[in-house]
């Protein structure tokens, strides 16, 4: 099983990056060039992360593998605890999947997984059995 950011979202990030870079090149004032240039760099970083770290989470009979910019980290089922946590900030509730393998804690959101963290946790628990 694999979970990754939605491909359409990553593609949209690349389109927005190209648009922001073009805007930065065509801007008249230096302030606009700097502001939009920083925006283009932020979009570039987010889009590159979404592209390079696909899939974010993989699971099989041996355990789970989390992919980051520094590489892949595999944890066996025996050393990992799976939790779904809800946090409330500014009146909004955010849900995340926590994979706790002492001392490593990986927190994945709906954006990382491409689906609801509860559904991913249920699939992981079913695969673990």
UniProtKB/TrEMBL annotation:
Entry-linked InterPro entries: CFP-6_PH
Domain of life of the native organism: Bacteria
Pfam families, per the entry: bPH_6
Stretches that traverse the bilayer: 34-53
Protein name in the entry: PH domain-containing protein
Domain Low molecular weight protein antigen 6 PH: 54-128
Organism lineage: Bacteria, Bacillati, Actinomycetota, Actinomycetes, Pseudonocardiales
Keywords per UniProt: Membrane, Transmembrane, Transmembrane helix
């Amino acid at each position: 099983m694999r979970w990754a950011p939605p491909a359409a979202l990553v593609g949209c990030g690349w389109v927005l990056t190209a648009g922001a870079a073009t805007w930065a090149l065509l801007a008249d004032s230096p302030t606009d060039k700097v502001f939009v240039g920083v925006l283009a760099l932020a979009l570039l970083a987010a889009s590159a992360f979404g592209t390079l770290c696909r899939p974010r989470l993989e699971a099989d009979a041996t355990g789970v593998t989390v992919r980051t910019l520094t590489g892949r980290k595999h944890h066996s089922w025996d050393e990992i605890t799976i939790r779904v946590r809800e946090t409330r900030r500014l009146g909004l509730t955010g849900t995340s999947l926590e994979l706790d393998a002492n001392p490593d804690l990986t927190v994945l959101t709906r954006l990382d997984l491409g689906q609801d963290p509860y559904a991913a946790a249920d699939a992981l628990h079913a695969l673990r059995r």
